Amino acid sequence: MFKVNVYVVLLFAVSILFSCKKNENVDANKETILKGKAEIYVDETIVPIMEDETMVFESQYDAKFTLISKSESEVLNSLFNRKAKIVVIARNLTKKELNIFEQIKIVPKITKFAIDGIAFVSNKSSNDTLIALNDVIDFMKGERSSKIKGLVFDNPNSSTVSYMNNLTGLNVLAGKGVYTFKTNNEVLKFVSENDGMIGVVGVNWLSQPKDSMNSIISNINVLSVKGLNKDGYYAPSQNNFAEGTYPLLRDLYIVNCQGATGLGMGIASFVAGDIGQRIVLKSGLLPYQMPTRKLNIIHSRSNSEKK
Question: In this protein, which residues make up the domain named PBP (predicted)?
Answer without folding.
Answer: 40-273
